[in-house]
Amino acid sequence: MRRFLTVLSTVSLVGFLGLAGSAQASAGQPLAPHHGGPHISVFATGLNNPRGLTFGPDGHLYVAEGGLGGHHSTVGRCQQVAGAAAPYTGSTNNPVLGGRISKISRSGKVTTVVKALPSSQTSAAIGSLVSGVSSVAFIGHQLYALLAGAGCSHGVPNVPNGVIKVGQHGHWRLIANLSAFQKAHPVAHPDPEDFEPDGTWYSMIAIGGALYPMDSNHGELDRVTRHGHISRVIDISASQGHVVPTAIVHHHGATYISNLGLFDPTDGAGDEHVWQLTRHDTLKVRATGVEKVLGLAFRGGQLYALEMSTMGGSPAPDTGAIVRVSSHGPATTVVSGLSFPTGMTVGPDGAFYVSNNGFGFGAGEGQVLRIQL
Known about the structure:
This protein is mainly beta and 373 residues long. The chain has three helices and 27 strands. A hairpin with a 5-residue loop joins strand 25 and strand 26 (352-356). It is globular. Mean pLDDT is 89; it is low at 1-26.
């Protein structure tokens, strides 16, 4: 997503300049006195571009890590992405640079479940920003993950973007080739100036024994069975245009979707929404007034949105937030001061768990925060 990545190039500067003040906190340490507000502590550290996260049936937290990118180019071998993000360079089977899935115990101990997954990065012109594993989900006791940094257009010619099934001892296999599906089933209104041939798959949830990955660049939500059959649920671009859908959650039989927006000069004018997916697979607006959403979660029957930055236009450091979403009025900020957060879930203890320092930071600088209201 060219507009997405161009603006996030500011994040890489933040990482190099050391402006993400919370990055130096150790696991379990409160970030600051809160005087009756939410209690925020660093639950885990040492992560590489952490993204989506979910609690498994074993009670542990599982986190998708984008990795650290790569150096392999496919220029001249296949269609490249459009705009300043090109050319991507990638890595495959690289235990140092590759994406990972990590498991975090109740005490905050981090262990690697899978490593050396495909990881890629944009051109240096916009900050060498990383994509890799973007989301994790369970069906029963089986773990699945979503590859977002793979595909030939990302410098990874031999592994497409798709859904993988995670086995034991670090083994995995691709069950659904989403790169091929997108090429065979184009959406109605792709943006040619901001087009990624292999897509930008950001979120995935499990509902009723199937997986639902969502692509932000093409603008689509698909369904993947446990046997790898892919079908289209909704072409979001057909009704909404290029709105960059990023976040999805399912609660009490209803599915909700929100978006990042485009960071254009009119940003803040209402191009970010929370929609509800109807029974007829159309979208109806549930709420407006949210900003740059990268996560959705329910807590106590109330919907919350994770805002990557609350600044209109370009994002700014330490302006990420969690807001309580209302269909009858403006969103209410319940947590502020987050540093480019990228994923959110609610734990069995009722606390929010948030991937922090999620874009543009160096090796091991990613975190998971625990936030108790």
